[in-house]
TrEMBL record:
Protein purpose: Catalyzes the NADPH-dependent formation of L-aspartate-semialdehyde (L-ASA) by the reductive dephosphorylation of L-aspartyl-4-phosphate.
Domain Semialdehyde dehydrogenase NAD-binding: 4-122
Protein name per UniProt: Aspartate-semialdehyde dehydrogenase
Gene from which the chain derives: asd
Annotated organism of origin: Buchnera aphidicola (Therioaphis trifolii)
Keyword annotations from UniProtKB, A to Z: Amino-acid biosynthesis, Diaminopimelate biosynthesis, Lysine biosynthesis, Methionine biosynthesis, NADP, Oxidoreductase, Threonine biosynthesis
Subunit and interaction comment: Homodimer.
Recorded metabolic or biological pathway in which this protein acts: Amino-acid biosynthesis; L-threonine biosynthesis; L-threonine from L-aspartate: step 2/5; Amino-acid biosynthesis; L-lysine biosynthesis via DAP pathway; (S)-tetrahydrodipicolinate from L-aspartate: step 2/4; Amino-acid biosynthesis; L-methionine biosynthesis via de novo pathway; L-homoserine from L-aspartate: step 2/3
Alphabetical list of Pfam families matching this protein: Semialdhyde_dh (PF01118), Semialdhyde_dhC (PF02774)
Presence of the UniProt keyword Iron-sulfur in the record: no
Keyword Isomerase: no
First-tier enzyme category under EC: oxidoreductase
Length: 369
Protein backbone atom coordinates (compact mmCIF):
# COMPACT_ATOMS: atom_id res chain seq x y z
CA UNK A 1 0.00 0.00 0.00
CA UNK A 2 1.20 3.51 -0.79
CA UNK A 3 2.41 5.49 2.22
CA UNK A 4 0.60 8.70 3.15
CA UNK A 5 3.00 11.62 3.21
CA UNK A 6 2.14 15.02 4.66
CA UNK A 7 3.88 17.93 2.92
CA UNK A 8 4.38 21.10 4.92
CA UNK A 9 6.21 24.09 3.48
CA UNK A 10 5.83 22.82 -0.10
CA UNK A 11 5.29 26.32 -1.58
CA UNK A 12 8.34 27.92 0.03
CA UNK A 13 11.66 28.16 -1.77
CA UNK A 14 13.12 24.86 -0.52
CA UNK A 15 9.70 23.16 -0.68
CA UNK A 16 9.15 24.18 -4.31
CA UNK A 17 12.56 22.85 -5.32
CA UNK A 18 11.70 19.60 -3.52
CA UNK A 19 8.37 19.30 -5.34
CA UNK A 20 10.00 20.10 -8.67
CA UNK A 21 12.61 17.36 -8.14
CA UNK A 22 9.93 14.89 -7.06
CA UNK A 23 7.97 15.59 -10.23
CA UNK A 24 11.13 15.15 -12.35
CA UNK A 25 11.81 11.78 -10.69
CA UNK A 26 8.15 10.63 -10.81
CA UNK A 27 8.25 10.22 -7.04
CA UNK A 28 4.58 11.11 -6.62
CA UNK A 29 3.60 7.85 -8.35
CA UNK A 30 4.79 5.94 -5.31
CA UNK A 31 3.08 7.90 -2.54
CA UNK A 32 -0.23 9.26 -1.36
CA UNK A 33 0.57 12.96 -0.74
CA UNK A 34 -1.46 15.29 1.47
CA UNK A 35 -0.58 18.99 1.22
CA UNK A 36 -0.80 21.23 4.26
CA UNK A 37 -0.59 24.96 4.82
CA UNK A 38 0.06 27.09 7.87
CA UNK A 39 -1.70 30.07 6.30
CA UNK A 40 -4.20 28.94 3.66
CA UNK A 41 -6.01 25.73 4.73
CA UNK A 42 -9.06 25.14 2.56
CA UNK A 43 -7.48 26.69 -0.54
CA UNK A 44 -6.61 24.55 -3.54
CA UNK A 45 -3.41 22.53 -3.22
CA UNK A 46 -0.79 22.13 -5.96
CA UNK A 47 -1.97 20.58 -9.19
CA UNK A 48 0.19 17.47 -9.06
CA UNK A 49 -2.23 14.75 -8.05
CA UNK A 50 -5.43 16.37 -9.29
CA UNK A 51 -7.75 18.62 -7.33
CA UNK A 52 -6.99 18.68 -3.62
CA UNK A 53 -7.68 20.96 -0.69
CA UNK A 54 -4.91 22.24 1.55
CA UNK A 55 -5.13 20.85 5.06
CA UNK A 56 -4.40 22.78 8.23
CA UNK A 57 -0.74 22.30 9.19
CA UNK A 58 -1.71 22.77 12.86
CA UNK A 59 -4.30 19.96 12.81
CA UNK A 60 -2.57 17.47 15.10
CA UNK A 61 -5.28 14.87 14.68
CA UNK A 62 -4.75 14.76 10.93
CA UNK A 63 -0.97 14.97 11.17
CA UNK A 64 -1.17 11.98 13.52
CA UNK A 65 -2.53 9.85 10.65
CA UNK A 66 0.47 10.48 8.34
CA UNK A 67 3.05 7.72 7.78
CA UNK A 68 5.67 10.34 7.03
CA UNK A 69 5.70 14.12 7.43
CA UNK A 70 8.11 16.20 5.41
CA UNK A 71 8.54 19.78 6.54
CA UNK A 72 10.26 22.58 4.63
CA UNK A 73 8.38 25.14 6.67
CA UNK A 74 11.21 26.26 8.94
CA UNK A 75 12.38 25.87 12.52
CA UNK A 76 9.59 27.86 14.10
CA UNK A 77 6.98 25.43 12.83
CA UNK A 78 9.07 22.40 13.79
CA UNK A 79 9.59 23.77 17.30
CA UNK A 80 5.88 24.40 17.65
CA UNK A 81 4.46 21.14 16.33
CA UNK A 82 7.03 18.32 16.55
CA UNK A 83 6.98 17.65 20.29
CA UNK A 84 3.19 17.96 20.49
CA UNK A 85 2.83 15.37 17.76
CA UNK A 86 5.28 12.95 19.38
CA UNK A 87 3.50 13.45 22.72
CA UNK A 88 0.31 12.28 21.05
CA UNK A 89 2.15 9.05 20.34
CA UNK A 90 2.79 9.63 16.63
CA UNK A 91 5.35 7.07 15.47
CA UNK A 92 5.74 8.18 11.86
CA UNK A 93 8.92 9.44 10.21
CA UNK A 94 9.57 13.18 10.47
CA UNK A 95 11.73 14.53 7.63
CA UNK A 96 12.81 18.13 7.98
CA UNK A 97 14.84 20.80 6.16
CA UNK A 98 15.12 23.05 9.22
CA UNK A 99 18.03 22.93 11.63
CA UNK A 100 16.05 22.65 14.91
CA UNK A 101 16.32 18.88 15.37
CA UNK A 102 19.65 18.22 13.59
CA UNK A 103 21.90 17.85 16.59
CA UNK A 104 19.41 15.89 18.74
CA UNK A 105 20.64 12.41 19.69
CA UNK A 106 17.57 10.75 18.27
CA UNK A 107 17.86 12.35 14.82
CA UNK A 108 19.99 11.48 11.81
CA UNK A 109 21.37 14.21 9.56
CA UNK A 110 20.79 12.85 6.08
CA UNK A 111 23.16 12.96 3.12
CA UNK A 112 22.91 9.49 1.64
CA UNK A 113 25.91 9.59 -0.74
CA UNK A 114 27.94 10.10 2.43
CA UNK A 115 26.04 8.36 5.25
CA UNK A 116 23.68 5.82 3.68
CA UNK A 117 24.84 3.18 6.18
CA UNK A 118 23.99 5.44 9.15
CA UNK A 119 20.59 6.12 7.62
CA UNK A 120 19.89 2.39 7.27
CA UNK A 121 21.16 1.55 10.71
CA UNK A 122 19.14 4.46 12.13
CA UNK A 123 16.01 3.05 10.50
CA UNK A 124 16.78 -0.44 11.81
CA UNK A 125 17.37 0.94 15.29
CA UNK A 126 14.02 2.70 15.34
CA UNK A 127 15.10 6.28 14.62
CA UNK A 128 12.18 8.32 13.38
CA UNK A 129 13.64 11.76 12.70
CA UNK A 130 15.67 12.54 9.58
CA UNK A 131 16.94 16.05 8.99
CA UNK A 132 18.75 17.65 6.05
CA UNK A 133 22.12 19.20 6.90
CA UNK A 134 23.18 22.81 6.68
CA UNK A 135 23.76 23.73 3.04
CA UNK A 136 27.50 24.47 3.31
CA UNK A 137 28.02 21.24 5.25
CA UNK A 138 26.24 19.03 2.71
CA UNK A 139 28.01 20.74 -0.20
CA UNK A 140 31.41 20.43 1.52
CA UNK A 141 30.94 16.73 2.28
CA UNK A 142 29.87 15.93 -1.26
CA UNK A 143 32.84 17.82 -2.68
CA UNK A 144 35.47 16.42 -0.29
CA UNK A 145 33.81 13.08 0.50
CA UNK A 146 36.65 11.01 -0.98
CA UNK A 147 39.19 12.60 1.34
CA UNK A 148 37.05 11.92 4.41
CA UNK A 149 36.29 8.34 3.38
CA UNK A 150 39.97 7.59 2.92
CA UNK A 151 40.72 9.03 6.36
CA UNK A 152 43.01 11.63 4.82
CA UNK A 153 41.81 14.77 6.59
CA UNK A 154 43.70 16.09 9.59
CA UNK A 155 41.84 19.42 9.76
CA UNK A 156 40.15 21.95 7.47
CA UNK A 157 39.77 25.71 7.35
CA UNK A 158 37.32 27.40 5.00
CA UNK A 159 35.91 30.61 3.64
CA UNK A 160 32.41 30.43 2.24
CA UNK A 161 30.79 32.56 -0.46
CA UNK A 162 27.11 32.03 0.34
CA UNK A 163 24.30 33.04 -1.99
CA UNK A 164 21.39 35.30 -1.10
CA UNK A 165 18.93 32.37 -1.35
CA UNK A 166 20.35 30.92 1.88
CA UNK A 167 18.87 33.88 3.70
CA UNK A 168 15.43 33.38 2.09
CA UNK A 169 13.35 34.39 -0.91
CA UNK A 170 12.91 38.00 0.25
CA UNK A 171 16.67 38.35 0.31
CA UNK A 172 17.04 37.26 -3.31
CA UNK A 173 14.49 39.91 -4.26
CA UNK A 174 16.33 42.51 -2.20
CA UNK A 175 19.64 41.71 -3.89
CA UNK A 176 18.05 42.20 -7.32
CA UNK A 177 16.47 45.48 -6.15
CA UNK A 178 19.86 46.65 -4.87
CA UNK A 179 21.45 45.81 -8.23
CA UNK A 180 18.70 47.71 -10.05
CA UNK A 181 19.04 50.70 -7.74
CA UNK A 182 22.75 50.91 -8.48
CA UNK A 183 22.27 50.54 -12.21
CA UNK A 184 19.59 53.22 -12.27
CA UNK A 185 21.84 55.65 -10.42
CA UNK A 186 24.36 55.68 -13.30
CA UNK A 187 22.53 54.28 -16.32
CA UNK A 188 22.63 57.59 -18.21
CA UNK A 189 26.37 57.86 -17.69
CA UNK A 190 27.43 54.41 -18.80
CA UNK A 191 27.76 55.23 -22.50
CA UNK A 192 28.88 58.81 -22.05
CA UNK A 193 32.41 59.72 -23.06
CA UNK A 194 32.29 62.86 -20.92
CA UNK A 195 32.27 61.20 -17.54
CA UNK A 196 35.22 59.43 -15.96
CA UNK A 197 35.01 56.00 -14.37
CA UNK A 198 35.92 57.52 -11.02
CA UNK A 199 32.93 59.86 -11.24
CA UNK A 200 30.68 56.89 -11.99
CA UNK A 201 32.19 54.98 -9.08
CA UNK A 202 31.61 57.99 -6.84
CA UNK A 203 27.92 58.12 -7.85
CA UNK A 204 27.54 54.39 -7.16
CA UNK A 205 29.20 54.64 -3.75
CA UNK A 206 26.96 57.59 -2.89
CA UNK A 207 23.74 55.91 -4.01
CA UNK A 208 24.54 52.78 -1.95
CA UNK A 209 24.45 54.98 1.13
CA UNK A 210 21.15 56.70 0.28
CA UNK A 211 18.31 56.16 2.69
CA UNK A 212 16.09 54.63 -0.01
CA UNK A 213 18.66 51.96 -0.87
CA UNK A 214 16.82 48.70 -0.01
CA UNK A 215 18.50 46.96 2.95
CA UNK A 216 15.53 45.76 5.01
CA UNK A 217 16.39 42.05 4.74
CA UNK A 218 20.20 42.08 4.80
CA UNK A 219 20.56 45.16 7.04
CA UNK A 220 23.35 46.27 4.67
CA UNK A 221 24.10 46.47 0.94
CA UNK A 222 25.00 43.10 -0.57
CA UNK A 223 25.28 44.32 -4.19
CA UNK A 224 28.78 45.69 -4.55
CA UNK A 225 29.64 44.32 -1.13
CA UNK A 226 30.34 41.17 0.92
CA UNK A 227 28.96 40.46 4.38
CA UNK A 228 31.29 38.29 6.48
CA UNK A 229 28.60 37.38 9.01
CA UNK A 230 25.83 34.75 8.76
CA UNK A 231 23.42 33.90 11.59
CA UNK A 232 23.86 34.90 15.22
CA UNK A 233 26.96 35.27 17.40
CA UNK A 234 28.16 32.55 19.74
CA UNK A 235 30.16 33.16 22.89
CA UNK A 236 33.30 31.66 21.30
CA UNK A 237 33.34 34.39 18.59
CA UNK A 238 32.09 32.07 15.87
CA UNK A 239 28.80 32.68 14.14
CA UNK A 240 26.21 29.92 14.43
CA UNK A 241 26.70 29.18 10.71
CA UNK A 242 30.44 28.65 11.31
CA UNK A 243 29.74 26.45 14.32
CA UNK A 244 27.48 24.15 12.32
CA UNK A 245 30.24 23.09 9.94
CA UNK A 246 32.36 21.06 12.36
CA UNK A 247 29.40 19.95 14.48
CA UNK A 248 27.20 18.69 11.66
CA UNK A 249 30.01 17.32 9.47
CA UNK A 250 31.36 15.17 12.30
CA UNK A 251 27.87 13.96 13.14
CA UNK A 252 27.19 13.00 9.51
CA UNK A 253 30.57 11.29 9.18
CA UNK A 254 30.05 9.62 12.56
CA UNK A 255 33.71 10.26 13.40
CA UNK A 256 35.33 8.54 16.40
CA UNK A 257 37.92 11.29 16.65
CA UNK A 258 36.68 14.80 15.93
CA UNK A 259 37.96 16.34 12.69
CA UNK A 260 38.56 20.04 13.45
CA UNK A 261 36.89 22.32 10.88
CA UNK A 262 36.62 26.08 11.25
CA UNK A 263 36.55 29.20 9.11
CA UNK A 264 34.57 32.25 8.06
CA UNK A 265 31.09 32.23 6.53
CA UNK A 266 30.48 35.09 4.12
CA UNK A 267 27.35 36.24 2.28
CA UNK A 268 28.02 37.34 -1.31
CA UNK A 269 25.81 38.72 -4.08
CA UNK A 270 25.09 35.46 -5.91
CA UNK A 271 21.62 33.99 -6.20
CA UNK A 272 21.42 30.28 -5.29
CA UNK A 273 24.83 28.62 -5.35
CA UNK A 274 27.22 28.50 -2.43
CA UNK A 275 30.96 28.45 -3.16
CA UNK A 276 33.58 27.44 -0.63
CA UNK A 277 37.35 27.72 -0.47
CA UNK A 278 39.08 25.07 1.64
CA UNK A 279 42.53 24.57 3.00
CA UNK A 280 42.83 20.94 3.97
CA UNK A 281 45.65 19.56 6.08
CA UNK A 282 46.16 16.08 4.70
CA UNK A 283 47.44 13.22 6.80
CA UNK A 284 49.58 12.05 3.86
CA UNK A 285 51.49 13.77 1.11
CA UNK A 286 49.50 12.53 -1.91
CA UNK A 287 50.19 13.09 -5.59
CA UNK A 288 47.92 15.42 -7.54
CA UNK A 289 46.55 12.58 -9.70
CA UNK A 290 45.86 10.48 -6.63
CA UNK A 291 43.89 13.34 -5.06
CA UNK A 292 41.82 13.85 -8.21
CA UNK A 293 41.00 10.16 -8.40
CA UNK A 294 39.98 10.02 -4.73
CA UNK A 295 37.71 13.07 -5.06
CA UNK A 296 36.20 11.91 -8.35
CA UNK A 297 35.36 8.40 -7.25
CA UNK A 298 33.37 9.21 -4.12
CA UNK A 299 30.08 10.11 -5.78
CA UNK A 300 28.41 10.66 -9.15
CA UNK A 301 27.96 14.38 -8.76
CA UNK A 302 31.55 15.59 -8.33
CA UNK A 303 32.85 17.35 -11.45
CA UNK A 304 36.58 17.93 -11.35
CA UNK A 305 37.53 21.20 -13.03
CA UNK A 306 41.03 21.39 -14.52
CA UNK A 307 43.18 24.03 -12.89
CA UNK A 308 43.28 26.55 -15.73
CA UNK A 309 41.64 29.90 -16.42
CA UNK A 310 39.13 28.90 -19.10
CA UNK A 311 37.86 25.77 -17.34
CA UNK A 312 37.61 27.62 -14.05
CA UNK A 313 35.55 30.53 -15.31
CA UNK A 314 33.37 28.24 -17.43
CA UNK A 315 32.77 25.47 -14.92
CA UNK A 316 33.66 26.53 -11.38
CA UNK A 317 31.19 29.36 -10.82
CA UNK A 318 27.73 29.75 -9.31
CA UNK A 319 26.26 30.55 -12.72
CA UNK A 320 27.71 27.34 -14.20
CA UNK A 321 26.20 25.18 -11.48
CA UNK A 322 22.88 26.86 -10.74
CA UNK A 323 19.87 24.56 -11.12
CA UNK A 324 22.02 21.41 -11.43
CA UNK A 325 23.01 18.64 -9.03
CA UNK A 326 26.66 18.95 -10.06
CA UNK A 327 29.27 19.69 -7.43
CA UNK A 328 32.12 21.50 -9.17
CA UNK A 329 35.50 20.91 -7.56
CA UNK A 330 38.48 22.85 -8.85
CA UNK A 331 41.53 25.03 -8.16
CA UNK A 332 42.98 21.83 -6.71
CA UNK A 333 46.59 22.39 -5.77
CA UNK A 334 49.09 21.83 -3.00
CA UNK A 335 49.93 25.10 -1.31
CA UNK A 336 53.54 26.21 -1.65
CA UNK A 337 53.77 26.70 2.10
CA UNK A 338 53.47 22.96 2.91
CA UNK A 339 53.23 19.75 0.88
CA UNK A 340 50.35 18.40 3.00
CA UNK A 341 48.27 21.56 2.64
CA UNK A 342 45.73 21.16 -0.13
CA UNK A 343 43.68 24.03 -1.53
CA UNK A 344 40.29 23.36 -3.16
CA UNK A 345 37.45 25.56 -4.39
CA UNK A 346 33.97 24.11 -4.81
CA UNK A 347 30.52 25.25 -5.93
CA UNK A 348 27.11 23.63 -5.41
CA UNK A 349 23.45 24.60 -5.69
CA UNK A 350 22.36 25.28 -2.14
CA UNK A 351 18.67 24.72 -2.86
CA UNK A 352 19.29 21.31 -4.49
CA UNK A 353 22.07 19.33 -2.74
CA UNK A 354 22.20 22.07 -0.10
CA UNK A 355 18.58 21.66 0.96
CA UNK A 356 15.93 19.76 -1.04
CA UNK A 357 17.76 16.80 -2.58
CA UNK A 358 19.01 15.05 0.59
CA UNK A 359 15.49 15.10 2.05
CA UNK A 360 13.89 13.97 -1.22
CA UNK A 361 16.27 11.03 -1.34
CA UNK A 362 15.71 10.01 2.27
CA UNK A 363 11.96 10.20 1.71
CA UNK A 364 12.38 7.68 -1.11
CA UNK A 365 14.37 5.42 1.21
CA UNK A 366 11.75 5.72 3.96
CA UNK A 367 8.77 4.90 1.74
CA UNK A 368 10.41 1.60 0.93
CA UNK A 369 10.98 0.53 4.55
N1 LIG B 1 16.61 28.84 2.24
C1 LIG B 1 17.52 27.91 2.30
O1 LIG B 1 18.48 27.94 1.59
C2 LIG B 1 17.46 26.78 3.24
C3 LIG B 1 16.40 26.66 4.10
N2 LIG B 1 16.34 25.60 4.94
C4 LIG B 1 15.22 25.46 5.86
O2 LIG B 1 13.98 25.46 5.17
C5 LIG B 1 13.10 26.40 5.78
C6 LIG B 1 12.27 27.03 4.73
O3 LIG B 1 13.09 27.91 3.99
P1 LIG B 1 12.56 28.62 2.67
O4 LIG B 1 12.02 27.61 1.72
O5 LIG B 1 13.64 29.52 2.24
O6 LIG B 1 11.32 29.48 3.30
P2 LIG B 1 10.21 30.33 2.56
O7 LIG B 1 10.09 31.58 3.31
O8 LIG B 1 10.42 30.38 1.09
O9 LIG B 1 8.86 29.46 2.80
C7 LIG B 1 8.41 29.10 4.08
C8 LIG B 1 6.90 29.19 4.13
O10 LIG B 1 6.46 30.54 4.06
C9 LIG B 1 5.08 30.56 3.67
N3 LIG B 1 4.88 31.64 2.68
C10 LIG B 1 4.36 32.85 2.97
N4 LIG B 1 4.32 33.62 1.87
C11 LIG B 1 4.81 32.89 0.86
C12 LIG B 1 5.00 33.16 -0.52
N5 LIG B 1 4.70 34.33 -1.07
N6 LIG B 1 5.55 32.20 -1.29
C13 LIG B 1 5.89 31.03 -0.74
N7 LIG B 1 5.71 30.72 0.55
C14 LIG B 1 5.18 31.64 1.37
C15 LIG B 1 4.76 29.19 3.15
O11 LIG B 1 4.00 28.50 4.13
P3 LIG B 1 2.42 28.28 3.99
O12 LIG B 1 2.13 27.69 2.65
O13 LIG B 1 2.11 27.35 5.12
O14 LIG B 1 1.83 29.64 4.15
C16 LIG B 1 6.12 28.55 3.01
O15 LIG B 1 6.07 27.16 3.18
C17 LIG B 1 14.02 27.42 6.50
O16 LIG B 1 13.42 27.96 7.59
C18 LIG B 1 15.20 26.60 6.86
O17 LIG B 1 14.96 26.06 8.12
C19 LIG B 1 17.30 24.64 4.93
C20 LIG B 1 18.35 24.71 4.08
C21 LIG B 1 18.53 25.81 3.18
N1 LIG C 1 22.06 29.49 6.82
C1 LIG C 1 22.12 29.08 5.42
C2 LIG C 1 20.80 28.54 4.96
C3 LIG C 1 20.08 27.71 5.97
O1 LIG C 1 18.88 27.70 6.00
O2 LIG C 1 20.84 26.99 6.82
P1 LIG C 1 20.25 26.04 7.95
O3 LIG C 1 19.43 25.03 7.23
O4 LIG C 1 21.43 25.46 8.65
O5 LIG C 1 19.42 26.91 8.88
C4 LIG C 1 22.54 30.29 4.62
O6 LIG C 1 22.27 31.37 5.10
O7 LIG C 1 23.07 30.18 3.54
Amino acid sequence: MKKTIGFIGWRGMVGSVLIQRMIEENDFENINPIFFSTSQPGNLGPNIIGKNKLQDAYNLELLNTMDIIISCQGGEYTNFIYKKLRKLGWLGYWVDAASSLRMKDDSIIVLDPINLQSIYSGINNGKKTFVGGNCTVSLMLLALGGLFFNNLVDWITFSTYQAASGAGSKNILELIKQMGYLYNSVSDDLNSVNISILEIEKKISKSIKEKNFPIKEFCAPLAGNVLPWIDYALKNNQTKEEWKVQAEANKILDTNKLIPIDGTCVRVGTFRCHSQSFIIKLKKDLSYSNIIQILQEQNHWVRIVPNNFQSTINLLTPMAITGTLNISVGRIRKLNVHSKLLSIFTVGDQLLWGAAEPIRRVLMILINT
